[in-house]
Amino acid sequence: MSVPTDPEAARADASPAPLILEPPGPDSAHEVPPGPTVHGEAVLRKLEHLFFRLDRLLGRIVPESLNPLLHTGAIAVTSFLVATVTGIILLLWYQPSVYSAFDSVQAMSDSPFTSGLVRSLHRYSSDLAMFICLVHALRLFLGRRFNGAQWLAWVTGVALVGLLWFIGWTGYWLVWDLRAQQLAVGSARLLDVMPIFTDPLGRTFLIDEGVNSFLFFVVFFFHMLVPLAMGMIMWLHITRVARARFITEKPMTWWVMGALLLLSLAYPASNAGRAEMTAIVDGFSMDWWYLAPIALTDRLSVSALWSITLGFGLVGFTVPWWLGRRRPRPAAVVESRCNACTKCYQDCPYVAISMVPRSDGSTKYDLQAQVDPSICVGCGICAGSCDTAGVGLGHFAAIDQRREIERWMQESTASGETVHMAFACAESAADGLTVDPQSGVCEELPGYRVLQVPCAGWVHPLMIERALRHGAEGVMIVGCGPGECHYREGASWEKLRIEGLREPALRQEKVAREQVLLLGLDRTQKKELVSRAIQFGQGSPPPSDSPRLPVLTGLAAALLAAVFAGLVGVASDLGYASPQPSGSELVVSFKHPGRMSENCEEVSEEELADIPVHMRQARKCERARAAVRLRVHVDGQPVVESSSAPSGLWSDGPSVTVERVSVALGEHRVRVEIGDGPDPDEWTFVDERTLEFGPEHRRVVLFERVDGFVWR
């Protein structure tokens, strides 16, 4: 909501206050506003330097609009949308049936410029989405942007990565090749410990005939449904961000599509062999962006797998609480100074400010600004937007800092010193400067008085005008590196204010443009900061950027797209060796109810007297189902001897088991015995055969009461 206001009147309200020569108290003027502090912050800040150096490296060859590391969130969403659209188109060719899925996908590979191209775009856009999501999460983690009000973005981001992985996992299931076979078996191992299936899910994947078509359709249904749920979580993910870059702008969109097309044409998506449940899979190539857990499901126990899954989930979701040390101190509104101009409301990057009806009884303005402390991140950008100092950080009040700057300038003028004023963002190259908070003197920047601020956007144009009016030769503002302001928009707003393109604007009739220098330098550029500060102090003009040649920019962007496509493509088809036992394998499984038995006892006369007449029985009997026993011999040697209790809530269902035995290659005599009664020496069902065990297939023996023994 915009409320008209008179800018000149607003600036008149903010006219210079009487000069105070003595310094204000330490809790107001000299305290550097602390950012969201986390445990291990020093380590995280050091590791974040890697991204700063990569930003500068890519910035030398492509403009910010084509630097993928500066648009990770938007690229992830754009890639996801490409995967969604291409997935819908693939329904024209795909047949969601366990019997025809592989053939329909294989047929796509035979049409590389139609269905095959769409399939490759679907696969590689999914891979790019996962890759960029991980880069995005790592960058925000190292940037400590998960503490305080930013917890919601972090938690929903972790959920989005998990759902994205789940979509890819189920998507590979639908191809129904050897990769799908391995992930289906691994998924069954995890789910079988949960009491949600009547029969162990693992029995479904013992032979091809046992694969449940309905289960395959359920996987297909979830693969199609989960992306819809992600839309709601994406909305929550950016709900506390103003002007979120949801999808890429046109140059970056062309870059993303170019990279995906390049990869799809150069290295079309392929299948592994057809899924065959009795096949012993020793190795294949797989997409490590989504199928990496196969390396764990093939090697670890179920308890270890669940421990890792729950452990990673718990650690990931709770990062803001176990790593966060304290919340940032939020901004506040001084109602008597608020003139309802809405500039702070418009500039806040985190929608923490709203315009509400007046609460101080003033009739001059209908509205006032209001800060939601649960959303505010303490950046102070609102202070740089307010002409009347009606909103800002209470512990770092703009009025107190203005007076402090005036005192510094007066001291310098009185001593005959030529001085420049510097406003140094705490997340910029000025992070490591040694500054005396009492005098503003900095060892590394002689001839400067330095005020450390939470963000470049905190600096109001009036602050610049006052410093020059009271004796500063020039004003230097040091913000974050280009394209990646720690508080999203602070450096951008400050640049527009200085150029006179955004209110509150620096008044050009009051300040010569060459008197103000705005630098965008990250924390690894301290030497360049010192050099540029010396040049500015000597009156040297800032170096101008060399114009980029469109042809060279295009070639550089194409090369960068090829590099990213290569990173995504290499990990999407790396080899994998499955840890299979030496020799071959025998699998024995049964589903069979044990025999019922009764245990009866006589009821005494006294007990009968306590029972209603119509319920009296002379004998009280309890029925129970016996456990089913299994014994397996190979060449006359016992290799399995087990007992399976009845299933069901009341232990009245059939017993179910799956036993696996490593067997040497060659011909072996196998004897399987099943006992379903209480007598341990009674074996009700017995079968024996000579089987040939080869290195490529396992042998499977199934038993059910209706079908009897089935040998595969």
Tally the structural domains: 3
- DSSP helix fraction: 25-40%
Query: What is the H level of CATH, i.e. the homologous superfamily of the largest domain?
Result: Cytochrome Bc1 Complex, Chain C
Shape: elongated
Which descriptors apply to this entry?
21 helices; disordered N terminus; 712 residues; 3 domains; Immunoglobulin-like; 4-stranded mixed sheet; alpha+beta
SSE diagram, text form:
Elements: H1 7-13, H2 41-59, H3 72-90, H4 101-109, H5 115-142, H6 151-173, H7 178-191, H8 213-237, H9 250-266, E1 283-286, H10 288-291, H11 294-297, H12 302-317, H13 319-322, E2 331-333, H14 343-347, E3 353-357, E4 367-371, H15 381-385, E5 391-393, H16 398-414, E6 420-425, E7 448-453, H17 461-469, E8 475-479, H18 490-498, E9 516-520, H19 526-537, H20 550-571, E10 574-577, E11 584-592, E12 596-602, H21 605-609, E13 619-625, E14 628-634, E15 637-644, E16 655-663, E17 666-675, E18 685-693, E19 699-704, E20 708-711
Parallel strand pairs: 6-7, 6-8, 8-9, 11-19
Antiparallel strand pairs: 1-10, 2-5, 3-4, 11-16, 12-13, 14-15, 14-17, 17-18, 19-20
